[in-house]
Amino acid sequence: MLNMASHVWGRSRVLGASGTNRLDFVVVCFIFIFFIMTHTRQPDHPVNPMFVNRWSPRSLTGEALSKEALMSVLEAARWAPSAYNAQPWRFIYALKDDAGWAGIFGAVNEGNQSWAHRAGALVVVASAKQALFPGKPDLTPNAWHSFDTGSAWMSMALQAAQSGLVAHALAGFDPVKLRAAIQLPEDYALEAVIVLGKQGDKAQLPEALQAREAPNARKPLSEISFAGTFKG
Ligand SMILES: Cc1cc2nc3c(=O)[nH]c(=O)nc-3n(C[C@H](O)[C@H](O)[C@H](O)COP(=O)(O)O)c2cc1C
After folding, report:
1. How many whole angstroms separate alpha carbon 113 and alpha carbon 58?
2. What SS3 state is found at 98?
3. For an engineered disulfide with 101, which of 9, 94, 176, 196 has Cβ 3.0 to 4.6 Å away?
4. Ligand 1-lining residues (CB < 6 angstroms)
5. Among 168, 193, 209, which is best to mutate for testing ligand 1, by the most ligand atoms less than 8 A from CB?
6. Each residue of 163-176: pLDDT tens digit?
């Protein structure tokens, strides 16, 4: 794209920028700006770039992840905030070639398996549906177990990105198979499977996924935030 723009720009100057060449240049600029706007992420307000630069690629190298790298990602999740500090999140992991890998991978749906087979580790994120709250002698339903565990997932994702790794969440799995594979008790909810690995060449992806292998956009802040009262 840049080559194309500089080519047209160069041609306009050499030929004395005739009307046609100027039009060429404007069209190429328009395409270039459109491409940048739709293929990169532009925050509307200042934020730490880590929020905007994290995304969920599917192209992975297939390299095994070290235990240290995995623990670093889980450590970040451990420090997430939670209601009453109940810490409802649980992580059941398998590094590539671990005994637990086949069970987790086998529960992931076919579409996701088509790219997740190149992961370096798989992490099932689960959450305890009940907690011991202050002043209550017994376990009580915890209304925030999923909300809090979502925070922990985001910490994982951001740490993974900081460590140069991909962390891609999946909900496309068979919950009955997955629960059985990791022997998750009924009082824990299955939240997601996280595919961890190193980013690879997108040419290795099935064709349909290659076209989608780019950071996506977000709704404008005005559509999701309201002063005072909800305005849907
Ligand atoms: C709970 C959850 C479930 C998801 N399930 C899938 C999935 O089954 N397959 C997949 O390819 N991506 C899945 N994704 C990834 C989302 O499509 C992705 O996060 C979203 O499009 C935003 O893109 P980004 O993460 O690159 O910013 C899931 C993400 C989350 C948080």
Report:
1. 10
2. coil
3. 94
4. 55-56, 112, 169-172, 192, 215-216
5. 168
6. 999 999 999 999 99
The amino acid that residue 157 corresponds to is A
Report the SS3 class of residue 132.
Answer: strand
Question: Parallel, antiparallel, or unpaired for β 130-132 and 188-197?
Answer: unpaired
Q: Which atom of ligand 1 is nearest to the CA of 57?
A: 26
- One-letter amino acid for residue 230 of the chain: F
Helix (H) or strand (E) holding 89: strand 89-95
Q: What's the pLDDT at 24?
A: 80
Domain positions in the chain: 2-40, 57-210
59 vs 31: CA distance, rounded Å: 27
* Dist. CA 14–CA 192, nearest whole Å: 58
Residue 37 tokens, joined:
């706007």
Query: What region does 16 belong to: left with phi over 0, alpha with psi -120 to 50, or beta?
Result: left
Q: What is the CA radius of gyration of the chain?
A: 23
List Cβ neighbours of 210 (8 Å cut-off, separation of 6 or more).
202, 203
Collapsing DSSP to helix, strand or coil, 48 comes out as: coil
CB atoms within 10 A of CB 12: 17
User: Which residue has 């595919």 as its token pair?
Assistant: 195
What is this structure's pTM?
Answer: 0.86
